[in-house]
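For the sake of transparency, this paper describes our internal protein records without simplification. The remainder of this section carries one protein's record, kept here as part of the documentation:
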Amino acid sequence: MSRLLAGLALPVCCLLAGCFKPSAGLPQGEAAYRVMPPADPNREIAEYRVGVLDTLSIRVFQEPELTFDEITVNSAGTFNYPFVGEVAAEGKTPIELSRELEAGLGSRYIRNPQVVVGVVTSAAQRVVVDGQVVEPGVYEVAGTSSLMESIARAKGLTFTGVEDEVIVFRNVDGERFGAVFDLRAIREGRVADPEILGGDRIVVGYSAIRGGYQDFMRLVPLVNVFRRF
């Protein structure tokens, strides 16, 4: 019995000792906000530009055979469209694509076509929320978001989540950056809520103490069983 308890206690002690801390070495506090600042309320929102693997909708007035609920931009940044052929979409706004398709259709096939291009899903505008959250996953963001909004989409932290150990990773010009934020300080208004961009990855840290407590509580029924014998 004592050997069993000793064997189960070892990993719990290791957790309580903090064997691994993924945020070690990453900027925190003011340094974190220099890497990933909050949104600028005076900044104009840039028009969305289509990226690879985005899904578009294309509607042509009174032309149902040329209307599509979903057309996917391929990995080369293009898609094929009837009568127009291959269309380069990456980096263009939906309005620019609408005008381009109108020009292509109107040059030979349709008189004064009216085309509306919309974005159904955006591969570039997705945020990964991972770690100790209730519902880890990939979430769509409309333009930009904030850290608190992104955590809320994942239904908040689990019992073992650490509020001051929330890491945001971001790729900038092929280089990966990371910064650590404190959700409690953000919620209480003591610090700003950092801006979250499409492509960011959020990881909520694990509380070794709370995790050890959970392990202990799972162990208690097992110990009671052995005491009966």
Notes: The longest strand covers residues 161-172. The chain is about 30% helix and 30% strand. Confidence is low (pLDDT under 50) at residues 1-20, 222-226. Residues 55-121 form a domain with the wza like fold fold (CATH 3.30.1950.10).
